[in-house]
Amino acid sequence: MTTGTTRSTMPASDAQRAWLLLAGIALAWGINWPVGKALLAYLPPIWVVALRSAVGAAALLVICVVRKRLVLPKRGDIPVILSVGVLHMTAFSVLASIGLQYVAAGRSAVLAYTTPLWVVPGAWLMLGEPMTVRRLAGVGLGLLGLLLIFNPLAFDWRDRNAVLGNGLVLLAALCWAISILYVRAHKWVTPPFELVFWQALLATCLLIPLALLLDGMPQVDWQPSLAGLLLYGGFFGIALAYWAMNTVNRTLPAATTSLGLLGVPVFGVACSAIALGEPISLQLIMAMGLILGGIGVGTMGGGRQRG
Q1: Rounded Cα–Cα distance for residues 172 and 213 (Å)
Q2: What gap in Å lies between CA 40 and CA 97, rounded to an integer?
Q3: What are 12-64's pLDDT values in tens digits?
C-alpha cells in the first residue's frame, strides 16, 4: 500500500481489506471491555493497561522480528507515534480503565464510542471531508442509539462516582477522536505495521512509571485466568487491533472509520452480558438496532471519498 494513495484511486481490494480489518477490530475491542473489567479484580486500573501494553509491545516485537519488519522510525514518523502512543494507547486506555471502576463494562463501551460526536465535525472542519446527507443520517442514527443507552435525564447526577466514571470515559473518547483525526491527516513515511511496536513501546514506557506513581507497586495474585486475560488484552486488544486500526485510518475516511467503530459497543454490550451477567433490556436491543442502522446508512457506498 503506497503512502500517496488517494481515495479516488484506491484499489477495491484495499477498501475491502480495510472493511474486514474494521470488523475484526470491532469484535476484538468489544470483547476487550469485559476483559478489562475482569482484570480490575486482580490489578489497579493503571497497572491493568500498563501490563496489557507491555504484553502487546512484546508480542509486536516478536512478530516484527519473525517477519523481518522491525525498523527504526524516521523523523516523519514521530508525530504519528506520539499521536497514537500518547492519546490513544495511553490517555484513552488510562481514562477508560479508571472509569471502568465505577461504570458497567457495557455502558463504558457505549460511552467510549461517542467519538463520532467529535470526529465527524472535526473531519469536516480540519480535513475537508464532505458532510454528506448519508453520513449525517448515519451519525444521527448511531448517536440516537447511544442516547437510548445513556439517558442523561434518568442519570443520578448526585452519585459522584458515577459522574466521575462516566466523565472519564467520555474524556477518553475525546482523546481518541483527536488521535483519529491526526492519523488520518498524517503524511505516512513508514507503513503502519512497522510503527505499531514503537507506539506500544512508547505507551508502555509512559504507563509503567505512571502506574508506579499513582497506584504503587501492586500485590498480584498470579493465576492462569489473570495471565489469559492479559494475553488476550495485549495480543488481540493491542498487537493486532492497533496495527489494523492504523491501516484502516490510513485507508478509509475518518468519519467512516468512526461510524464503523460504533460496532464495538454492540459487541461490548453483548460480551459483557455473556461474560459478566450484565442485563440486556429491550431499550438496549433497540439502541443496538439504531447503532447498526447508523453504520449501514453512513457507510454504505461511502468507502471512497470523491475529490
Answers
A1: 20
A2: 8
A3: 677 788 888 888 898 998 999 899 999 999 999 999 999 999 999 999 999 89
